[in-house]
Amino acid sequence: MSTINFANREINFKIVYYGPGLSGKTTNLKWIYGKIPEGRKGEMVSLATEDERTLFFDFLPLDLGEVKGFKTRFHLYTVPGQVFYNASRKLILRGVDGIVFVADSAPNRLRANAESMRNMRENLAEYGLKVEDVPVVLQVNKRDLPDALPVEMVRAVVDPEGRFPVFEAVATEGKGVFETLKEVSRLVLARVASGT
Amino acid sequence: MVEPSLVLYGAPYERAMAVLEETLRETGARYALFIDRKGFVLAHKEALWAPKPPPLDSLATLVAGNAAATQALAKLLGEARFQEVVHQGERMGLYVDEAGEHALLVLIFDESAPLGKVKLYGKRAASALAEITEEALANPPKLPLDTEYQEGAKALLDELLGN
Ligand SMILES: Nc1nc2c(ncn2[C@@H]2O[C@H](COP(=O)(O)OP(=O)(O)OP(=O)(O)O)[C@@H](O)[C@H]2O)c(=O)[nH]1
Ligand SMILES: [Mg+2]
């Protein structure tokens, strides 16, 4: 759930970028960090290995501005996608308000996409949450790959019921990055406003 | 929802601030932060003489991540929890203690603050803050998150991220 600081009149939301290793989660955050003007973002923190794989998380705070006298902030996190970092991945999900699932369009990552989604369900369950309880947006990334799979094929393995809004992206070029972030933010806001 | 929303305001907030202030005075620490386990800052206080603090958002996030990892380690070893954590460099030190189940106390101090005092008053402050947290959780305020708020926030989203 969102964290509210009445005294400082702040409302904070936590958005987590989830997905298999190398799908482009960190690239999303880097792009956002590069495009958001000074004064509307804080420091980006990256806990990564020497070869730039996320080890624990990336973190980027965004300042939306003041709404009804409350400073509204989005805290963006990425998880480490590599399978063996599951303990860290689980910790990052704590208190999540919204999720961007970044899937990889590469044919040899289709299975990794499916496994990552299953892993996300399991980890949410540890907090007593179902995927249905949290706003989720699906980003199908790396659309620029020459052998990119059709979007529907990627979707079929992570979201067979077609429940989540889908965005195509090329995160390295920023395509679809803001659109994805905006949609998940809107869903998060809609959910808190409806009081569920 | 499993994770309760921790909201500090009014009297509990004022009391938390008083605890932080007193702890700074007693320990000689530079900064005191009261954060939730998710890494959000609930309250913070700086000593009057202290230089500008590092970015608090980043600090809180890293401390919360660290605390979560430490707690997971304790569990692996069959411990309910580990004691408070102290990190000390050549000049600066960091004290982190649990303020109950949902929050953490962070003290940042330099070489002028005696470690014994930091630990002693840090412990006291942590248990005082734990009580305040319980109280705040038992009396959640009405949130201003109505449709008017939602519309306003959406407009700002359009402005920041484009249409
Ligand atoms: N061709 C192409 N490459 C991409 C795209 N997005 C990211 N990449 C590349 O994929 C690699 C991995 O990207 P990251 O953002 O580090 O992946 P990640 O999901 O954070 O990976 P982990 O931290 O291991 O979970 C990098 O070399 C990126 O440049 C894309 O849209 N197209
Ligand atoms: Mg990464």
Key descriptive features of the protein:
heterodimer; A: 196 residues; alpha/beta; 8-stranded mixed sheet; 8 strands; B: 163 residues; alpha+beta; 5-stranded antiparallel sheet; 4 helices; 6 strands; globular; binds guanosine-5'-triphosphate; binds magnesium ion; Small_GTPase_ARF/SAR (chain A); GTP-binding (chain A); P-loop_NTPase (chain A); ATP/GTP-binding protein (chain A); nucleotide-binding (chain A)
What can you tell me about this protein's structure?
- The complex is a heterodimer of chains A (196) and B (163).
- Chain A is of the alpha/beta class and 196 residues long.
- Chain A is built from five helices and eight strands; from the N terminus they run ββαβββαβαβαβα.
- Chain A has helices at 25-35, 86-92, 110-126, 151-158, 177-193; strands at 3-5, 10-18, 45-48, 54-67, 70-78, 98-104, 136-141, 166-168.
- In chain A, strands 1, 2, 3, 4, 5, 6, 7 and 8 form an eight-stranded mixed sheet that branches.
- Chain A starts with a strand and ends with a helix.
- Chain B has 163 residues and is of the alpha+beta class.
- Helices cover 48% and strands 21% of the residues of chain B.
- Chain B has a five-stranded antiparallel sheet with strand order 3-2-6-5-4, with helices on both faces.
- In chain B, a hairpin with a 3-residue loop joins strand 5 and strand 6 (103-110).
- In chain B, helix 1 (10-27) runs antiparallel to helix 3 (115-138).
- Chain B starts with 6 loop residues before the first strand and ends with a helix.
- In chain B, 41% of the residues are buried.
- Chains A and B meet through strand 1, strand 2, strand 4, strand 5 and helix 2 of A and strand 1, helix 1, strand 3, helix 2 and helix 4 of B.
- Strand 1 of chain A pairs parallel with strand 1 (7-8) of chain B.
- The site of magnesium ion has 4 residues of chain A, from helix 1.
Short description:
Chain A is α/β, with parallel strands linked by helices and 196 residues long. Chain A has helices at residues 25-35, 86-92, 110-126, 151-158, 177-193; strands at residues 3-5, 10-18, 45-48, 54-67, 70-78, 98-104, 136-141, 166-168. Chain B is α+β, with helices and mostly antiparallel strands.
